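Input chain follows. Return structure tokens only.
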Amino acid sequence: MPQPLPSPVVIITGGSSGIGRCTAGIFARAGWRVGLIARGTPGLAAAADEVRSLGVAVAVAVADVTDSAALLAAAETLEAALGPVSVWINAAGNGVYGRFVDVPEREFRQVTEVTYLGTVNGTRVALSRMRPRNSGTIVNVCSGVVFHGLPLMTSYSGAKAAVRAFGQALRVELAFERSRVRVSTVFPPAVNTPFFAHAISHMGWPARPVPPVYQPDVIARAIFLAARLGRPEMIISGTVSCFALLSRIAPVWTGLVIRRLGVDGQRGPQQTTEAMPTVFAPSENPSGAYGTFGRHARRWSLQVTLRRFFARLSGTGN
């Protein structure tokens, strides 16, 4: 009897919490073998247990995405345990809140190193595995802030804008060499994850997302779809789609809206737990996929639902 083909492998940076951890569960439920990379051992262990409970193979590796050598070693370890990576997801990121003049240079640089250069490092490692096989998909988790930066998030806005431009340039290079490796960039809205508790705030109040907020499950399902379809860019949620359109056709008006929502929207009723910044060091306790803003967080997106529906009709998604 012919042997069944082994299930594909996904590797996720930032896989111990938030969007990365939720995405691991989505891939696991689809039968994928899952490799997780993060800085903190407790969080990785908890995330691995969660994936393992779904009946699929899982492996973990401790690495900081700002350390390219450690990231390469982590990829080698995970591939040795699971097999060749088919999809690599760059989901690691961090944040510092406050006016640009109030954010110390060291903190600004760290956000850039993790959120932008961490994505670059992860992509470089993924390409080192995929290009020789001329196969694979890289998904970079970006943000809706690329369409108009948010005040009090200058470091994060700049880093995410760089992620988008990096992906655009890289796709052209890969197409020029006729590579079958695909690079997809996804743009989520505000998401209910521990990101805000992990951020440093210089605002005088705790960090919180600008409404509307979505549950990370919505983003994870969209990332899975982006990996399957290999689309160059994918906006997640009608909210971000409208935001992107307005930024293009009415930039002045959009700027006025952002001036109000970008500050006042982060100053609403506080639903946060005690801040546990992880900008420079991982948390000593597992964080999970969800934050403390779930009460009003949206659990689905019409846009993502329709994308999944049409992908199923075409036989490219599930």
